[in-house]
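Box 3.1 A note on notation
Throughout this textbook, protein chains are presented in two layers. The first layer is the amino acid sequence; the second is a token string describing backbone geometry. Keep the layers aligned when reading.
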Amino acid sequence: QVQLVESGGGLVQAGGSLRLSCAASGRTFSSYAMGWFRQAPGKEREFVAAISWSGGSTYYADSVKGRFTISRDNAKNTVYLQMNSLKPEDTAVYYCAALMTYSGSYYTSRAYQYDYWGQGTQVTVSS
């Protein structure tokens, strides 16, 4: 079992920045690829970013590429999502997710492949 707790959400003006954190506890964090997803009101959950457990491979949705950066610190059992140049359309509940994998370079954008999910943190971007 892995427990995931997101933090760092809040209200920010358009053009601003936020850094989300996802703290993991339980099994060996470094064996898990991690992902960030988001869900806006009335919309389906969508992929944002993913990172392999080695941290050497990352992948982004086109909508956030160049603005968001995913990273991880395996010593702290934490994955981060640095969000810059925020737009009102980035408003959503952001979730982190963990996928156990034996490959240090594996990552995925497919939500159904993730084994564990956090409760989410709200990000609101005002115009």
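The CA atoms of residues 44 and 81 lie 20 Å apart. The chain has a mean pLDDT of 95.
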